[in-house]
Design goal:
The complex is a heterodimer of chains A (about 500) and B (about 450). Chain A is of the alpha/beta class. Helix content of chain A is about 35%, strand content about 10%. In chain A, helix 10 packs across helix 12. With about 450 residues, chain B is an alpha/beta fold. Chain B starts with 7 loop residues before the first helix and ends with a helix. The chains are: A alpha/beta (about 500), B alpha/beta (about 450). The complex binds pyridoxal-5'-phosphate.
Chain lengths: ~500, ~450
């Protein structure tokens, strides 16, 4: 096998240095009108600091970023079974709609007479979200799931204050929760009290009841939970929480499993964020942006942050200040992630009530199909009953052979797959959380299952080195995380990176 | 349904393999009564033709900025974004990738992040930058909370020049944590007033340059005073193109520089998604919020990039994390990096000069209108003007004449006592004819 080439390229994969190593200060990919030569009024405040920003012509820029793109895995390339992340197909009609001039070229502070369509779209989105979830109100402005969690927790805080119960400081969070839950509770000024999981991967109702008390503000539960299971005691938990005078925050990251099938409002939820970038298909873009509209119960709705859309006759107005309302504040400048609203509404309308229900059913069916195919070959800690939209495996059957979760993940890279989520949730040792989503055809599921089973066979055969050496076929081999963290090098600096450039060229 | 590949035959076969009678068997854990029997009362599925038509109709009920003489900024700016930017960010490999948790198959995203962090640090003249925040306003709130952690103090002082939405956002986030916000009265040219609030309890002063009224300020002395009192100086901004022409806060002693990056690479999008730029002094890095990419080597000794210093983040530190942020502004950050690569130093300086010139022209044209007083003396591309009538009324009347003349300060902050103040902005997108049309329309409205 050829491993070394003169160019450093490997067939279609092109070696690509940093823009700072190829571009230069006078390179440019834009042609702008000539300045008029007017006298600046900036005087001593004119920039003296060096800029040293490299520029590239348009063809060089295209090549640079296309070459980089080819080193990325993506949903459009194959199954992306990253549990908890809902990597489903991103319909391109959504992209087109978001780029309509009437949405993309709209300033958030234009006079309201010129933005009626935008406000109507937001109202329509709100109507879909409220109807689907069975909740009376939604705050659209949160910019991602974690931001929505903050919105919900601040609404709870405001409701408690209004009741004169600000002494309620404790928030119960199951040990299986996503890291954003405890981080949000703490950032909202609460203390976090961890709730145990039971042996079946569920929140332990008894432990919840034991921990409830007059100082508890809320519980944050993910449902379906991060083990991929629906919480069967969810209503009992909600009732107990309410009886204790606290609120129920639901992390809606896993809403894809139940959209159109179950309304969180029927389960006693007081607040829940919806990741539009998960359930409603707005693209992940290599890390964002997202949107985290947060539905609110009647008890919390009065405290929704500004802005509010107010209907006056036929026209819509924006209420942008808290004065005269009970709003707890403002989550961000302007009105939220309009670009995501457009995409999500397009997606919802395309599916309709029937299609969305089918989304949940197919997502759950696909996951259970993978569970059925994989469980004879891997340890599936809760595999004796159906899962929701995610399959949870662990390392119990591979660890004794010397292979770990991370090794299976890296072997999958060579097989052309993005791996599952590794080591999350924390409550299961060596977790492998697999979320196929509804947009995978059966053929792809079978191909993936075949690969997973073949890897399980290799573990059984004791091929430890095969796993430890993986990946071999990716643009990069395993990267040294420890080195990155010990000697952080977080940016290019003139002169300082020459050694790195040399290594890259070799 | 065009997005759902399973056929009924597939579903039958799969249920058989699973050993379930029907799909509802798989929902057995849902409490009785909570599993919906009927469809929710919403319209049924529609094809591309119908959905496209519906969205198009909604879009047509708006007046796009480009169809008017447009002079609105105040936190979001209308700039030209080269055609290649949108093409590149729509490549599947960028658009439909996740956060780069598996670096071996995400070097595209990671190298672009590293380039972004480097460009941001160069632009702001700061030591390190993170991989983006949601937007400028939430980044500013994070900076305030970070300053409180670093100094172990509780008071945050905002100048009267910071964008009111930024103050409101930070107030919401900070007060929940028990921090105290002091927001000085709105002032066109009064960033330095924050120094009068300094004391042993002040975590940071937060100033903005160019500020919401467009004023450009030398922050050096403010920084010195803050440091003298053991506080940090946080500098925020809403118009990042300005740093092609004006001295960046990093060169004037700021400890944290955070603001809005939308101007580069990103359309107006009615307020989002945007991209928060966030940069700090190296010694503060362990308290920085958000993801960061770093350089390392792979098993073959080749240079590569990974997400690093994650022991600050929620997935590791949970309630002790420096922030709860997870998803950030990835694709908007990529658009920023591509546009900045196309500009380069020369292009950015050129673009910034054009903006400044247009604003000078705008200022002169409006100053020539009876009933207008230009309040901003040193500006980049935005100015505040005082009118003889309430600015909100004027803005609304101008809109009827096809001119989006800016934003009334009373809309941003009704309590500022600046009802007659209008904030207007000019960019490279404005023609000389636009400016003349604005001055003419304003003269009609005022006189
Ligand atoms: C269970 C769960 N909760 C919360 C979040 C946070 O959402 P976001 O990344 O949109 O902030 C995620 C996703 O990353 C998640 O999987």
């Amino acid at each position: 096998m050829i491993t070394e080439t003169t160019s450093g390229n490997r067939g279609l994969l092109q070696a690509e240095p940093l823009i700072f190593e190829t571009g230069h200060a006078t390179g440019t990919g834009v042609d702008l009108p000539a300045p008029k030569g007017l006298k600046s009024n900036l005087g001593a405040l004119t920039r003296k600091a060096a800029l040293d920003l490299p520029g590239l012509s348009e063809p060089e820029t295209m090549r640079h970023f296309v070459r980089l793109s080819q080193k990325n895995y993506a949903i459009d390339l194959g199954l992306f079974p990253l549990g908890s992340c809902t990597m489903k197909h991103n319909p391109r009609l959504n992209e087109r709609a978001a780029r309509f001039e009437g949405f993309a070229d709209l300033h958030p502070l234009q006079p309201t007479s010129t933005i009626q369509g935008a406000l109507e779209l937001m109202d329509e989105l709100a109507h879909w979200l409220c109807t689907l979830t069975g909740m009376p109100a939604v705050a659209l402005s949160p910019k991602a799931g974690a931001h929505g969690e903050m919105c919900g927790m601040l609404a709870i805080k405001a409701a408690l204050e209004a009741r004169g119960e600000s002494h309620r400081q404790r928030v119960l969070v199951p040990s299986s929760a996503h890291g954003t839950n405890p981080a949000t509770a703490a950032a909202a000024g609460f203390t976090v009290d961890e709730v145990k999981g039971d042996e079946d991967g569920r929140v332990d109702l008894e432990d919840v009841v034991a921990k409830l008390g007059p100082d508890v503000a809320a519980i944050m539960i993910t449902n379906p939970n991060t083990c991929g299971l629906f919480e069967p005691d969810i209503k009992k938990i909600a009732d107990a929480v309410h009886a204790a005078g606290a609120y129920f925050y639901c992390d809606g990251a896993n809403y894809n499993a139940i959209v159109g099938k179950v309304r969180p409002g029927d389960l006693g939820v007081d607040a829940m964020h919806i990741n539009l970038h998960k359930t409603f298909s707005t693209p992940h873009g290599g890390g964002g942006p997202g949107a985290g509209p947060t539905v609110l119960s009647a008890a919390l709705a009065p405290f929704a942050p500004v802005p509010h859309i107010v209907l006056r006759g036929e026209t819509r107005e924006l209420r942008e200040h808290m004065q005269g309302t009970q709003a707890f504040g403002r989550m961000c400048a302007f009105h939220g992630q309009m670009g995501m609203f457009t995409r999500a509404l397009t997606y919802m309308m395309s599916h309709g009530s029937d299609g969305l229900r089918q989304v949940a059913e197919d997502a759950v069916l696909n996951a259970n199909y993978l569970l059925a195919r994989l469980k004879p070959h891997f340890s599936a800690p809760f595999g004796d009953r159906p899962c929701m939209h995610e399959v949870l495996l662990d390392d119990a059957s591979i660890k004794p052979k010397g292979v770990e979760t991370i090794d299976v993940a890296k072997a999958l890279l060579d097989e052309g797959y993005h791996p599952f989520t590794t080591y999350f949730p924390l409550v299961v040792h060596g977790a492998m959380l697999i979320e196929p989503t509804e947009t995978e055809p059966k053929r792809e599921l079978d191909r993936f299952a075949d690969v997973m089973i073949a890897l399980a066979e290799r573990v059984k055969a004791g091929e430890v080195e095969f796993f430890k050496q993986a990946p071999k076929l990716t643009p990069m081999r395993r990267l040294d995380d420890t080195r990155a963290a010990r000697q952080p090098k977080l940016r290019w600096r003139r002169g300082a990176n020459d050694a790195g450039a040399k290594v890259a060229a070799e | 349904m065009r997005y759902l590949p399973l056929t009924d035959v597939d579903r039958e076969q799969m249920l058989k393999v699973i050993g379930a009678k029907n799909v509802d068997d798989l929902f057995a854990d849902v409490p009785k009564g909570a599993l919906l029997k009927d469809l929710v009362p919403l319209p049924k599925a529609q094809g591309e033709i119908e959905v496209h038509r519906h969205l198009q109709r909604l879009a047509e009920k708006n007046t796009p900025a480009g169809r008017t003489a447009f002079f609105l900024g105040a936190g979001a700016y209308r700039h030209h974004v080269p055609a290649s930017v949108d093409h590149l960010i729509q490549r599947s490999e960028f658009l439909t990738a996740y956060t780069p948790y598996q670096p071996e198959i995400a070097q595209g995203t990671l190298q672009a992040l590293y380039e972004f962090q480097s460009q941001v640090a160069q632009l702001l003249d700061m030591e390190v930058a993170n991989a983006s925040m949601y937007d400028g306003s939430t980044g500013c709130a994070e900076a305030a909370m970070m300053a409180a952690r670093v100094t172990k103090r509780k008071k945050i002082v905002f100048s009267g020049g910071v964008h009111p939405h930024y103050i409101d956002t930070a107030r919401t986030a900070c007060e929940a944590l028990g921090l105290e916000i002091v927001a000085l009265p709105a002032a066109v040219d009064g960033e330095a007033a924050v120094t009068e609030e300094l004391g042993a309890d002040v975590a940071c002063v937060i100033v903005q340059s160019p500020n919401v009224f467009g004023t450009v300020t030398d922050l050096t002395k403010i920084g010195e005073a803050a440091h003298g009192a053991g506080a940090l100086m946080v500098a925020t901004f809403t118009e990042c193109v300005s740093f092609g022409l004006i001295e960046p806060a990093g060169a004037m002693g700021a400890d944290i520089v955070c603001g809005e990056g939308q101007s580069i690479g990103n359309a107006l999008n009615f307020g989002g998604p945007y991209v928060g730029l966030f940069a700090v002094k190296e010694k503060l890095i362990r308290q920085m919020p958000g993801r960061v990419a770093g350089e390392t080597l792979d098993a073959d000794g080749k240079r590569g990039f990974v997400l690093t210093l994650s022991t600050r983040e929620q997935h590791i530190r949970r309630e002790k994390a420096t922030s709860n942020i997870c998803t950030n502004s990835g694709l908007c950050q990529l658009a920023w990096t591509i546009h900045m690569t196309l500009l380069g130093e020369q292009g950015l300086r050129h673009l910034a000069t054009l903006n400044h010139e247009k604003a000078i022209q705008l200022g002169e044209a409006l100053a020539g209108v009876k009933g207008v007083e230009v309040l901003t003396k040193r500006f980049f591309n935005e100015i505040a003007v005082k009118l003889t009538k309430p600015a909100q009324e004027v803005v609304d009347t101008l809109a009827e004449k096809g001119v989006i003349g800016g934003v009334a300060m009373s809309r941003l902050n009704p309590k500022a006592g600046m009802d007659n103040v209008l904030i207007a902005c000019a960019t490279e997108m404005n023609t000389d004819e636009d400016i003349a049309a604005y001055a003419k329309a304003l003269a009609e409205v005022l006189n």
